[in-house]
Amino acid sequence: MQKKLQLYTRFERLWHWVQAALIIVLALTGFELHGTFELFGFEKAHTIHMYSAWPLLVLTAFAIFWHITTGEWKQYIPSSRNILPVALYYIRGIFRGERHPFSKTRQKKLNPLQALAYFTLKTVLLPVSLVSGVLYLFPDRAEAFLNIPLGLTAVTHTAGAFALVSFFIVHTYLTTTGGTLLTYIKAMITGWEETDE
Amino acid sequence: MCHDGTGTYKKFPTDCGHPAYEEKKFGGTTYQTVDLGNIARNIKKSSRNTCGACHFFGGGGDGVKHGDLDSSMFAPDKSLDVHMDVKGLNYNCTVCHTARSHDIVGRKYSRAAPNTHRLALPEDTGLRIGCENCHSSRPHKNNQNLNDHTDTVACQTCHIPYFARGGIATQLDWDWSTAGKHTADGKAIVKKDSDGNVIYHTKKGTMAWGTSLEPEYAWYRGVMTYIQQQDIIDPSTVVALNRPLGSYADRDARIYPFKVHQGKQPFDAESNRLVVPKLFGKKGSGAYWAEYDWTKAANKGMEAYGAPFSGSIGFIETTFYSPLNHMIAPKEASLACGECHSRSGRLAALTSFYLPGRDRSGLVDALGWTAVWLSLAGILIHGVLRFILKK
Description:
The complex is a heterodimer. Helices cover 68% and strands 4% of the residues of chain A.
């Protein structure tokens, strides 16, 4: 039986897509600043990077507030229960046309692999990039007051960026693994997802 | 001379600054008697003309020595110097080189430039010389990130993108070792390039010139070290006759632009010390420009100088750093970020610190790209398998 389930609230969708856009722009300009390629020119790339960094920080503050006040943060607590069947599904079942072993509900919308991945994103990848990014905004003060040299800040920021780009690649690919290629993307736009239950 | 309002004061070449008190000839030029009474009755404030009469011709000719001072600075336009622009601010030298009781501030005299680059406005002594003394140390109104550069990068570094921009060539290389050649019939040789710069002169050797040149950059806290005659040098290396002092770790030092002049000059090949040759004099005096014999010239010169000479002459390659402070370009023409923030930019030689856009951790980049490519390969394989097996 087909059933429609509202998985993502309006704020969640807005937060997701704005964050996605900002991170794409930050990655493009950031890797230009890193010297990987030339796109906008150093000065313009720097300006765009700065004008994208501040909105991301503000958005993150709102998102943290939202997670705490709605209790949605509990969705991201990783658990080993059922993790093996889900992992096996992506390694084997998906190729045989098997059904996804995890059933989404409004109360538990992330499968255990997703919970683990987003938990890592939110507690390691994003904090590493954001904290090193804030230090990078004030390199003189980071050096004077916290004794953190620019090189350490920069290399940490680069490492965070590589991790986020890798995450982005796999994350984007996995959006195509729903009922149709665009099922999950549609759900993140409309908030509603069609499930088999 | 400094306050001559008539423009008639001329030094006589061999009289140590004195003018011709009566009509005299030198090298085919007649020097008229200078009417000191007339000059004294017409003294004026100093000007670009009075200062430039000497300082624009340092090193024996127009623009030879400095690279940022030459006769184009008598009446520069805005693109050559924003402050001295005759149609704009039209500053005289003394707007920045202020003086009390004729004690003129400048690089090597009463204080070093850059002076302490803290906010110096208003400096209650009234003395100016550093850019910061008027502009403050955070001068960019709409770009705080540029202001974060001022503790490590001197204003001159970005705002003098090229030197010798006025169309007058400055000397870049002077090789004394080739001097002394004559034509078959014993005449002196003078060769010029198409712009009229002397590229060979029997008295001086081989020379090279240039205009609109990229400076070299070094950490500099306003103080130079100099090699002195008694210092032992290493003739197997290029000898830096002077060297700007400072480093990344030195909080008073900043990255500063320099004209670096190359040279080849005689030295005492036994004691490995510089020699002071006698150049100017009559035949029989041992002067190089009369007899073209370096050993004789060094003997005579060192005798007058009062230091021993072994009698053995060699030639060493040298460099000489001159800091660049003039020919400040308009802000639109100042250096773009990418000139330094790039893999092989202008600061490629200054490696003691992390420069964004130039530097990276090889390990982090290698691991990072491995992660990115593995992710791409992983989704590609997974996707292709899904596509094939679903059919």
